[in-house]
Design goal:
mainly beta; Porin
């Protein structure tokens, strides 16, 4: 990941990723190449991002137990890492500190994926996901560093379950130094 300052309150952030997974031995058939890129333009409290991700090979993206995937389009519910899937992301973030409300942030994004190989005699797989998040972290007082986050997601697909999900996340950052 790289952030390039462009001028007064402007930046360009790039996140490029590549992962190659192959089988090792006789226990799996893993064969996947994942490439992804996310470019985000920041202007004051606004951030506008576009992402692209492509899977290729004989399988979808391979996971190791209890690890986060390395994919730019791994979001709240889906990872868009199916066999031969191509996916795109449009994202918008806003930091309300730019208008005098530090600690309050907003994010929304939309992702769509297609070209999923579903096997012989099945139509091409397609899916989309929409996420929204609103978060506030208390800046002072007895609740300082306490965060409250609401996340909402909807997923629609022609090859998996349609899902709607809401999460309420409470977090606390403990400064050690």
């Amino acid at each position: 990941m790289h952030v390039l300052p462009l001028g007064d309150k402007q930046s360009l952030k790039t996140d490029l990723r590549y992962a190659r997974s192959t089988d090792d031995g006789r226990r799996s058939n893993v064969d996947n190449t994942a490439i992804g890129a996310m470019v985000t333009y920041g202007l004051g409290g606004h951030a506008f991002g576009l992402g692209y991700q492509k899977m290729s090979g004989d399988t979808g993206f391979a996971y190791l137990n209890n690890t986060d995937p390395f994919l730019v389009n791994y979001v709240q519910i889906s990872d868009f890492g199916n066999k031969d899937e191509k996916s795109y992301q449009a994202r918008y973030d806003y930091n309300f500190a730019s208008i005098g409300i530090p600690g309050l942030t907003f994010m929304t994004r939309y992702l769509t994926g297609d070209n999923v190989d579903r096997g012989r005699n099945l139509s091409e797989g397609k899916e989309w996901e929409r996420n929204t998040e609103l978060m506030y972290v208390f800046q002072e007082g007895a609740l300082k560093n306490l965060g409250v986050r609401w996340r909402n997601a909807s997923v629609r697909s022609n090859f998996a379950n349609d899902l709607d999900e809401n999460r309420l996340i409470v977090s606390y950052t403990l400064p050690l130094l």
